[in-house]
Design a protein that fits this description.
The protein is an alpha/beta fold. The protein is built from nine helices and seven strands, in the order H-H-H-E-H-E-H-E-H-H-E-H-E-H-E-E.
């Protein structure tokens, strides 16, 4: 087992290195105003300055995983799907359900964009952020448990505030699937990429990913900017993830998949009659 873990760790580190070397800095998001890193006070910077700053971040990520005893939670093929999406988008607003050992990697792949993690476990969040304090993470209190997954589908059909005809999250207390108490930044920003790799969904009293999937679908449908919202969802081998994805993200929007990860492209809603 130890030998296998070391092989996986080495392969993952090599993948991250190769992906970073393949990346084009111009494909990432807008440059922040940072003093002390060669970036001018007016926000202007040379290509050389940008290259140095982002290569430092990427090298730090490579060293982090090369010296860590844990590996990212996704396989190399799964990681590459999200990497390719992020590389192709500018600007990039990246919302991630779940905070974990792979969070440094996701943040470093999107160095000029906004990457925000939503985590349900405050203790776990503190443990991760202790060594990676530069990551941006919000704690989310879910109103659901995995045990309720089937009844929540019945609730969706019966509760008008859950229906696509209304399709809203902020203050939506009646719809139990709606994440109604997130930070204003989550509601106010339009997310180009949403990853659903949390919250926990492998035992009955865990929050499950029902609300994350529903809320991601609502965010995508309410998009006002041009283009689609990319939603990547992990652990699709589990029944709840698969059922809720087909109910709210829609099979017709599924454009790619490998291993336990599906990639959806959700267009803005032209009509509010139904999710699919």
């Amino acid at each position: 087992m130890l030998k296998l873990a070391l092989i996986c760790l080495t392969c993952t580190t090599l993948l991250i290195f190769i992906l970073f070397r393949m990346s084009n800095n111009s494909a990432f998001c807008e440059t922040p105003v940072v003093l002390g890193l060669g970036i001018l006070p007016n926000g202007n910077s040379t290509e050389s300055d940008d290259t140095i700053m982002f290569e430092h971040l990427q090298v730090d990520a490579i060293l982090h995983y090369a010296t860590s005893r844990v590996t990212p939670q996704q396989t190399m093929d799964e990681i590459k799907i999200t990497f390719d999406i992020l590389k192709s988008l500018t600007p990039c607003n990246f919302l991630v359900f779940g905070l974990g050992h792979d969070s440094f990697m996701w943040s470093s792949i999107n160095p000029r964009g906004t990457t925000l993690f939503l985590e349900e476990d405050p203790k776990w969040s503190r443990a991760i952020l202790k060594d990676l304090s530069f990551l941006r993470a919000n704690t989310v209190r879910y109103r659901t448990t995995l045990y309720q997954a089937e009844k929540l589908i019945e609730h969706y059909y019966k509760e008008p505030d859950c229906w696509a005809t209304k399709s809203f999250l902020r203050g939506n207390h009646k719809c139990k699937l709606a994440l109604d108490m997130l930070s204003d930044e989550v509601y106010d920003k339009e997310w180009d990429v949403i990853m659903i790799d949390g919250p926990k969904g492998y035992f009955d009293q865990a929050p499950g990913r029902m609300s994350a999937i529903y809320s991601a679908a609502v965010m995508a449908r309410n998009r006002k900017r041009p283009g689609v919202t990319h939603i990547v969802m992990h652990d699709v081998d589990r029944d709840v993830e698969k059922v809720y994805a087909e109910l709210f993200l829609c099979r017709k929007n599924l454009v790619n998949g490998v291993g336990r990860l599906w990639h959806f492209q959700i267009p803005p809603s032209e009509n509010n009659t139904d999710f699919c």
